[in-house]
Specification:
The complex is a heterodimer. Chain A is α/β, with parallel strands linked by helices. Chain A contains 13 helices and 16 strands. In chain B, helix 7 (about 180-195) links the parallel strand 5 (about 170-175) and strand 6 (about 200-205). In chain B, helix 2 packs across helix 7 and helix 5 packs across helix 6 (about 160-170). Classes of the chains: A alpha/beta, B alpha/beta.
């Protein structure tokens, strides 16, 4: 466990590592890529100090594979990447979903597609985080809006990964990753730590993928005496491949439901000046900072406007967005892409009130003025 | 140690998963058995053995074996295995891959695992063809040979996998075949005892695709080819001309170097607070 105390001036990327260590991270594998690299560098420096392991792999694919191997061997594991690296990790990300291996994948988003804008902020992987790998699968993705929150949400990312036996994405943007703010460390006694559920049966009775009522199978680590088989193929409760249609369908549904049926437990969000708001801005990550500033400005001009900030970006906060839409006369979704989260919001809220886009993809932040202009222009 | 065949099967195979899926005459079953017998000979604790594979015919092997087993994505077995070994260096990590798995899609992982000299024993079941997808050429298909994707003869030049592993930094390299099973077993035993990255090529045979496409005759003929065309390195070292136009088998290279997880432990011991 991290022994950091008090407070420090840190980047979001550094706060991510501090959160991971506080959550019990003991393994990091990665490949350097801007703007996520500081996550890797600080992990390299700190992990051995806490008895953990670091390795710089030959590429992003190998890094994702290595953290799955390490997690199966019992270590809480993380990798970090950006844009092109996130694309490369997708196949093995799907493997972690299918084989139910807890781990944390950090994507500090940069401009794209392709090599795009390596040092500029973007929020272009909202949909890739959800559907980047092939097949139907659940995703938990968190989008922090400050350095402090990056620290706290990274702890939560590990907890959710362990609790639901699934990879969890920290979907940051360059603004948050490279921003420096005061980070107040939590007292270790105040940090709630989740650990994977272990089998309590005899090894010979262990069915590696037999889920309990909560849809999550207990997980033994390699080397603990439970010899079992892990595969990315569709498998039955024993973990061995099956072509049985009924079992195959039930597995894929269970993987989805164990996340989607627990949205209340996974839902993190912030409501800012929303009580009497007639106009609602929905924004997350770096853009939410501009949105708050814009809202304060418009409030001072007497406008009834507020912010709904998703922190859990996946699974989609359908209930919360629904109730926002019930009260709003108008919703704006501001994001550094051409409208990815917008379509999800519009699907839920579009029948209740007009939903409009505020977008920017030139590698610059959306400014408070641009939000103000869009909202006032939209009237 | 079990010498009795049925004891070996009962102790190390998941008998409820048999029979295996491999075609009649495939060399993979023999090679798997050499892996199991090597583990048995060394008396390794089953709970401390992890067998990792990628994708392809060879990579179905772990499913039949009663250890901690991991069937990963195509080409990535060594990257998963690196995570396992680094996380818990006490485990004996064995990787079983095919020729395409290890040297085409997984070629980069092979050279980097070898370069790190991480203590993993890698066994490549090389049947010179992509079997599971139906007979396309692989990086070890001989020049001029036929495959479904080389209908006019293969013009890719084949890899010598052992030279590749040695050049990349493996500290133990050997080559056996499905015909030379006792040698293969011995090489795997040596590889498991080498503290570092061990690479053992096991020449297998694929009568269904490679053999049929290239008119190599029946399975007995294919085994006879291995018998007649392989020469042990020890023989060639004494009489070099005996190795001309032959496949050199046996222990090809051995050179201890610092092992990755041990080097990392030095860092932990020095810097842990």
């Amino acid at each position: 466990m991290s022994s950091e105390k008090g407070y420090k001036l840190l980047q979001g990327n550094e706060a991510c590592v501090e959160g991971a260590l506080a959550a019990g991270m003991k393994f990091f594998a990665g490949y350097p890529i801007t703007p996520s690299t500081e996550v890797m560098e600080l992990s390299a420096q700190k992990l051995p100090q806490y008895g953990g392991k670091f390795i710089q792999m030959e590429d992003e694919i190998a890094s994702m594979a290595a953290i799955i191997g390490a997690s199966l061997t019992g270590l809480k594991s993380m990798t970090a990447t950006s844009g092109p690296g996130f694309s490369l990790k997708q196949e093995n990300f799907g493997y972690a979903v299918m084989s139910e291996v807890p781990c944390v994948v950090v994507n500090v988003q940069r401009g794209g597609p392709s090599t795009g804008l390596p040092t500029s902020p973007a929020q272009g992987e909202i949909m890739q985080a959800k559907w980047g790998t092939h097949g139907d699968h659940p995703v938990i993705a968190l989008t922090p809006g400050s350095v402090q929150e990056t620290y706290e949400m990274t702890i939560e990312a590990f907890n959710l990964a362990e609790k639901y036996r699934t990879p969890v994405i920290m979907l940051m943007d360059e603004t948050i990753g490279h921003m420096r703010e005061k980070l107040i460390f939590k007292d270790p006694s105040d940090i709630k730590i989740e650990n994977r559920k272990k089998p309590n049966c005899k090894p010979e009775e262990y069915l590696a993928y037999k889920a309990d009522e909560d849809m999550i199978p207990p997980m033994a680590n390699f080397g603990e005496g439970y010899r079992y088989h892990v595969t990315g193929l569709t498998h039955d409760e024993t973990g061995f491949p099956t072509n049985n249609n009924e079992i195959s369908g039930e597995l894929i549904k269970r993987l989805s439901n164990k996340v989607n049926n627990n949205i209340d437990d996974i839902a993190y969000y912030e409501e800012y000046k929303l009580e009497d708001a007639e106009i609602v801005v929905i924004a997350f990550g770096g853009v939410s900072r501009s949105a708050k500033s814009a809202i304060d400005e418009m409030r001072s001009q007497g406008m009834k406007i507020g912010l709904f900030r998703p922190i859990t970006i996946w699974p989609f906060l359908e209930t919360q967005i629904n109730s926002v839409a019930d009260k709003a006369k108008e919703i704006y979704v501001a994001e550094m892409n051409l409208g990815q989260y917008f379509y999800e919001v519009d699907r839920v809220a579009g029948k209740k009130c007009p939903v409009k886009k505020i977008n920017k993809v030139n590698g610059e932040l959306i400014t408070p003025k641009e939000i103000i202009d869009a909202v006032k222009g939209g009237k | 140690m079990n010498t009795n065949c049925s004891d070996i099967t009962q102790n190390y195979y998941r008998v409820d998963k048999l029979p295996h899926i491999w075609c009649p005459g495939c060399g993979h079953g023999t090679l798997v058995n050499t892996v199991v017998r090597a583990i048995d000979k060394l008396g390794l604790n089953k709970d401390e053995v992890v067998i990792v594979s990628g994708i392809g015919c060879s990579s179905r092997a772990p499913g039949y074996l009663d250890f901690n087993t991991l069937h990963t994505t195509h080409g990535r077995a060594l990257a998963f295995a690196t995570g396992i070994k680094h996380a818990n260096p006490k485990l004996h990590v064995i990787v079983i891959m095919g020729d395409g798995d290890s040297s085409a899609i997984g070629g980069n992982h092979l050279i980097h695992a070898a370069r790190r000299n991480i203590d993993i024993t890698t066994i490549v079941f090389n049947n010179n063809i992509y079997g599971m997808t139906g007979g396309q050429y692989s990086p070890t298909t001989p020049y001029g040979d036929f495959a479904t994707t080389a209908p006019y003869g293969n013009i890719d030049k084949p890899f010598d996998l052992c030279n590749l592993a040695k050049g990349a930094g493996a500290t133990y390299v050997g080559r056996g075949t499905a015909y030379h099973a006792p040698l293969m077993q011995k090489l795997i035993e040596n590889g498991l005892q080498n503290k570092g990255f061990s690479f053992i090529e096991g020449i297998s045979l694929c009568p269904t695709y490679y053999g049929r496409k290239n008119k190599k005759g029946d399975v007995v003929n294919m085994h006879n080819f291995l018998k007649d065309n392989c020469v042990d390195k020890k023989v060639v070292d004494k009489v070099p001309e005996k190795g001309e136009n032959k496949i050199i088998i046996g222990e090809l290279y051995k050179e201890p170097k610092p092992e990755y997880t041990e080097s990392y432990k030095v860092i932990i011991d020095k810097f842990q607070e």
